[in-house]
Design brief:
alpha/beta; Rossmann fold; two-stranded parallel sheet; elongated
């Protein structure tokens, strides 16, 4: 029976939290006929406590491999291209991720023009301002916010809801910026409720 191929993407430098759990999972998954390719990003040297632990596990367990992607900084477009090439080569059945960069693998998540723009001007999104145009939005609107979001705090989302005519604010508890990925059931239920009001 052909093993299920898992591509696990994580940014880790030590064996704590998600990195520890991932390594333990990869070892246990072998008993269920799951091979795991662990991908991590490195900046200076590819060796760190996490990569060393994965290499040790790979030496002890057939079916665990490590791939490292060198990056020049947090906004390195070549690292994303390398990740896409690696995914095409590994051809995983499942992609599991703890790395925001991996969301660039799905073209529908970040179309090419968004990808190119964000890397051409990494600070651009923070300088974008349409406050004076919010009142011209004339369609039903709901603004979703993660209660613990530090990038776009609830107060910023409240500002949007207060300045878009008829908009409502929906705060999702115990989650940060990526609430739709971290709390998909709650987000999907809230979105479904909103969409049902549009009929």
């Amino acid at each position: 029976m052909t093993p299920l191929r898992l591509l696990a993407i994580i940014e880790a430098y030590s064996i704590t939290g998600p990195a520890k759990n991932l390594l333990e999972f990869a070892q246990r998954a072998l008993a269920q006929n799951v091979s795991t390719t662990i991908v991590t990003f490195t900046r200076e040297r590819p060796e760190n406590p996490f990569t060393q632990a994965v290499l040790e596990a790979a030496g002890s367990y057939k079916g665990i491999t490590l791939e490292t992607i060198q990056e020049r900084g947090p906004f390195d477009p070549e690292a994303i291209r390398s990740l896409r090439r690696l995914a095409a080569r590994v051809r995983p059945d499942v992609i599991q991720t703890h790395a925001v960069k991996s969301h660039f693998l799905a073209q529908s998540n970040f179309p090419r023009h968004v990808f190119d723009s964000s890397f051409a001007d990494p600070k651009g999104v923070f300088n974008w301002n349409i406050k004076n145009r919010l009142s011209s939005i004339k369609v039903p609107t709901v603004v979703y916010a993660g209660e613990e979001d530090q990038a776009t705090p609830v107060a910023a989302n409240q500002f949007l809801a207060d300045n878009i005519p008829g908009a409502k604010l929906h705060v999702i508890k115990d989650v940060g910026h990526f609430f739709q990925l971290e709390k998909p059931l709650e987000f999907n239920a809230a979105l479904k409720e909103f969409v049902s009001t549009l009929r």
